[in-house]
Structure formats: C-alpha cells, structure tokens
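cache lookup: miss for this entity combination. No prior model stored, computing from scratch. Input as submitted by user K.M.:
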Amino acid sequence: MNGGQDLGGTHGHGPVMPEPNEPVFHAEWEKRAFALTLAMGMPGGWNIDMGRFARENRPPGEYLAMSYYQIWFAALESMLKERGLVAEDEIEAGHKLHPTKPVARVLSPSDVLKVLHRGGPTERETNTTAAFKPGDRVRARNINPPTHTRLPRYVRGHVGVIERVIGCHVFPDSNASGAGENPQWLYTVRFDGGDLWGPQGDPTVKVSVDAWEPYLQPAT
Amino acid sequence: MTHDHHHDHGHSELSETQLRVRALESVLTEKGYVDPAALDLLIETYETKVGPRNGARVVARAWADPAYRARLLKDATPAIAELGYAGRQGEHIVALENTPKRHNMVVCTLCSCYPWPVLGLPPVWYKSAPYRSRAVSDPRGVLAEFGVTLPKDTEIRVWDSTAEIRYVVIPMRPSGTEGWSEEKLAELVTRDSMIGTGLPKQP
C-alpha cells in the first residue's frame, strides 16, 4: 500500500537524532508490547507479512504520529480482534469476558530460546529458473496495490541492474493476504542515485532494494 | 540528552497506552494464550544477551582472521553461526565490506528490518521517519548528522532491506591495531559502524 510506512525519499521529517547511550526499551510498556507481539505469533497464527501489513495499514498521519512500539501494539490489537481472540470490551475491562477460542500452540518459557534461534527462514526450494542474472538491466514495475507490497515507491518505474540472485523466497504480497507463500525469485537490484533522484541525486550514491521477480520487467 | 519527537507525547497518552498494554497482557494471560514467564525471558534476552557486542565479535574475528573474513563475505549466515549467533531476524545475513572506495550503509525504508542476532533491537532513530526517508536520497547528509564525512569520491552504497535478507557492515580495520587480540579489536567496533552510519573507534 502507498501508506505512511513507505518513507524513502520523502521530505519534512527533520534531522536524524541519535540518542547517546540509548536503552533497549524506553518504558516498561514497550517491553511488554514487544514481548506480547513475539509471543502471540505462535497462538495467533499470523505470519510476518500479515504483521507488517497490520502495522502499516492505517492513515499516514496516524502512522507518523505514533511511536514504533505504539504501532506494534496497535497492530497486535487489531490482529487479535480480527481473529476473535480478544474483544475491545475485554481490553477495556482488563479481564476475560468471552469464551476462550482454542489456539494451536502457546509459547512456553522452555521454548523461547529454541524458537528465537530457529527464526523463520523464508527461502524455499523451487523447480523454476530465475528469469534474470547478474548484470541484467531491469525496470521496477509501476504497481500500486492497496494491499501489502515490499516494492518501495521511490524505485517504481526506474531501471536498475541485477546485482545478485538471492534465491527463491516467500512472496510477501501473497503471504500478507493469506493467499499462501507463493515463493518467487528474489534479487538485489542496484539503482544509481542520479537516476533515482534526478538533479537532487548524488552520482556517487548507489541504492539497492531486494525485489521479487513479479516486481521486475526486462529493460533494454 | 537528545530526545526523539516520538517521546514527546503527553503523559495522558502514554499512560493510556501503558494501561492498555497491561490490560491486554492480563486478558491474554487469563485466556492461556501467553505465559508471563516467557514474556520475561523474551525481554531479558534482548535486553542482556542479544546486542551489538555480538556483531562486534564477528567484525573483530573478520579483522583478525583472513580465512574467517573470506567465509563471512561469501556466506555470512553460517559464518556468524560459528560464533553462536543465529535465528529470528537474522535467518539470511549478508556481510558488506567497507573499502577505501566504497562505504556501505543499511536502512529499511518500509519498516525496521535489522539484523537482530548480531546487532540486537534497532535504536529509535533507525526506525524513525528522518532516517528512513533520507538514507536513500541523501545519505551524505545523514552521515553528516552522525558526524561522519567521507571523501567526495567514495561511493556510498545504500542497502534498503526490503526482503528478509539482513545486512551487516564490516567496517575497515583502524590502522595502528596490528597484532591486537580479537577481544581488544571488538572494543573498537561500534553499533553504528555496523549499520554504516558510523566508523569504528580509533585506537
């Protein structure tokens, strides 16, 4: 979606403000929101792309005004409500008001380190052949889906060069909507700063994105 | 202390979020969906065990051991796993080597993708609009805000983490560190030098 999350090349956000000796979390609730989000992935049954879409799928003004863990928490609430695992009146009351819906699995303390260590690899086996090879010139397609996509606006329509064929990976545009993993070839595509940003671009800058094959077309 | 604008919300709004998070945790616990001990362990892991010291050990080894450096640059995920770092948000890692001609810098313009097993959780600025918007369009300007100025003809290579590949920068080894132990070298490696917004400390 062309939402508030797609920030590359936008203006007006002010300077970067690094915080010296920054703590990992800035408040107790951030810790709990972070841990709840990680722990609920298992019983909640959603995937990482559904999670990302739940975070970005809000009015851009709202997205930009929220802190990052506020966005995480809002996404967690909406995914729980959509699946009928929690209702608004329960959050307001602070306790259970409706029957518990059965879930497949709950994260136990003894599984935490194992689950973190395993992670969620996204590379998949395939019997298809990659359409592009390193050095090929490709154009990022001009697509504007209102649903989840990982092709940022700032490269759409621009020509880049395939730098690396990464492998066949879960396709977020399908995975986020529950349409399955639909693995696709994934490439690192490099663009020139001067081409991306015109007269405001810096010719010594090169920018790459990792783009799935459906995002790309051959360029001459 | 510098404050990000995200921390300037009024107290009432913060306490409202605080209350909602607490309420949700109570409901989820009561329903048996989460075990608070598992939550505590998740927090403890990322507060005390998984952080940029892990990445610093990787970089120091790459500086000290040419064979390791070669393995790391060829396929970083197994090379990093040799040191025991793997898993969530680091399933597919690529190591990017800085050279006198090329400086690498990592961003996620679409969210906050970051190599957790080697760098821990990202700092607020990495997830915030100022960095995500300008890292791809004005990386030299961004570097200046970090106090980093590079020669005009150095290529700046920006990696936007739009998929599940996670990037970690291997900065150049500072001169004057010949013969140093890996432990001592690791002390020079800062978090920002592995994102590409900083340089290692000088000896």
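stored under new cache key. Chain B has two domains: 10-47, 51-195.
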